Amino acid sequence: MSSSQMFQSGKARGEGEAQAGQWTQSVQDAAGSVRDMASDTMQSAKESQQHAAGFLQQTGVQVKQMAQDAAGAVKNAVGMGNADAGSGGGGATSTNANQAPQDLLL
User: Which of 23, 37, 63, 97 lies 20 to 30 angstroms, CA to CA, from 78?
Assistant: First the structure.
């Protein structure tokens, strides 16, 4: 093999190794990007789940309060409610004519 052929062979080998190194770096960069996107997606999903859980908790509290209010309204409508329950006056002093007998006991 002549020195020119050896030079061309070495040159081709060096260029091939350089190209392989560039491809390897490109693959590593792409893998890093995919890993970052996956991490961002997981974080976003976690935040969405926490937001949904908070929303459902808040909705549950609101539904519970509405049910309690409705139950109080029904009790008041049938005369079993305590008209001054929120004032801290106690049910024994109420003068409601439709008041249930158990509310009149001390």
Answer: 63
Rg (the chain; Cα; Å): 39
| Confidence bin at 22 (pLDDT 50/70/90) | very high
The pair of structure tokens assigned to 44 is: 């976003």
Q: State the sign of the Cα–Cα–Cα–Cα dihedral 70, 73, 75, 77.
A: negative
- What whole-number distance in Å separates Cα of residue 21 and Cα of residue 3? 26
CA 51 vs CA 8, 46, 47, 84: distances in Å = 64, 9, 6, 38
Region of 44 on the Ramachandran plot (φ > 0 left; ψ -120 to 50 alpha; else beta): alpha
The distance in angstroms from the start CA to the end CA of the chain is: 117
- Whether the pTM exceeds 0.90: the reply is no
DSSP 87: G
